[in-house]
C-alpha cells in the first residue's frame, strides 16, 4: 500500500511539473531571431501555410505547436547570386504572400509596440533579418528600401566578405582578408543602421570586423545565430572577450542550434560522412546546380548515418548557461537556424520542439523570470533600444 501511494505521489508531481513547464512556456514571449525557411521557398517552392512535416523544420502549424510568438525570417543568398538585392526582394515577396493569405495567423510588424499587440492576438509576429550585407549592393538606398519592407537587422556578412566588411570564413582561411574589418563605407553602413533603427548583427563576421563594429556602433548589437567558441571552437562562434563586449554594449547573443556549432566533435564526423558519399554528392551537385540541395539529399538518403551526427540536446543548454555564467542572464537568447541547418541536435527535430528548452532550463534551476528573458525578453529589449522615437 505504501509503495502504491509513493507511486501515485510521484505521478502527481510529474503531472504538476509538466503543467508548470507548459504554462511557463506558453506565458513567455518566444522569439527566434533566425529561421531560413524563405530559402526553402526559393529552392523548393514550399508554402509556410502548408503541412511540411518531414520536409522542413518549419510551418505555421508547427510554429504554434512550439509556442513561437515572434520570428525573424532570414533573407539569404550566397556571394555568387546575380542581382542579390532583387533576389532578397523576391524572398520578402514570398513572405508577404503567406501573410496576405493568413492574416489570422501571422502579421508583419515594424516595432515592439506592434509586435506585442500581434502576440496578444495569439498571432505570430514576423520580421526580417538580411543574412549577408552583399544584398544591399553597396547602396544605402537599397538598405532603406529593405528596412521599409520589414528588415530589422542585417548580418553584415555571410561566409563571403563584402567590399566593406570581412567575414569569419575569409578572415580565418584567407590571409589577404585578415585584419581588414570595416571600411569607411562599412562604418557608414553601421552608423546609418543605428540612425534608422536597424539592428547590427555580427554573426558570420570576422573578428576584425567584430571589433570595428563595437568601436563604431552607438546602439546595442546582436549575434542573431552564434554559439560559444570556448565550448565549440569554430570561427563562427564567439570568444569570451567578444561575449563580454556584447554584454558591455547591452546587446544579446542568440544561440545557434547547428550541431557543428555546439558540439566540438561533430565536424570530424560530418566530414567523414560527406567523404564517404563524395561521388554521389558531386553528381547531385552537378545535376541540381545547388550544393545546399545536394547536401540535403545526401543526408535524407542516408538518414540513419546522418542522425548519428546530431549533437546531444544538452549542449544547446550548455551554451546558453555558459553565456549566463560569463556575463549574466540579460545577454542570451535563441537563434535556431532552423531550415538553414541539416543536422539539428537530438530531440530538437523542428520548431514544435521549443518547449524542451523551457523544460530543460527549469530542470537546471532557472526561474520563470530568467526563462522569460532567455526565450525572448532580452532580444525585445535590444530591439526596443534600437528604435528611433
Detailed description of the structure:
The chain is of the alpha/beta class. It folds into 2 domains: 305 residues, TIM Barrel (Alpha-Beta Barrel), CATH 3.20.20.140; 46 residues, no CATH class. The protein is 51% helix and 11% strand. The strands form 2 sheets. Strands 1, 2, 3, 4, 5 and 6 form a 6-stranded parallel beta sheet that branches. Strands 7-8-9 form a 3-stranded parallel beta sheet. The chain starts with a helix and ends with a helix. About 3% of the residues have low confidence.
Helix-strand topology string: HEHHEHEHEHEHHEHEHEHHHHHHEHH
Can you tell me the number of structural domains?
2
Beta strand count: 9
Query: If you compute it from the alpha carbons, what radius of gyration comes out, rounded to the nearest whole angstrom?
Result: 21 Å
Q: Specify the structural class.
A: alpha/beta
Please specify the SSE layout and strand pairing.
Elements: H1 2-27, E1 30-35, H2 37-44, H3 60-65, E2 68-76, H4 84-101, E3 106-108, H5 112-120, E4 124-131, H6 140-148, E5 151-155, H7 168-173, H8 184-196, E6 199-201, H9 207-216, E7 222-223, H10 240-248, E8 252-255, H11 259-262, H12 266-276, H13 278-288, H14 291-301, H15 303-307, H16 314-327, E9 332-334, H17 355-363, H18 368-386
Can I get a quick summary?
The protein has 389 residues and is of the alpha/beta class.
Please tag this protein with its features.
18 helices, 389 residues, alpha/beta, TIM Barrel
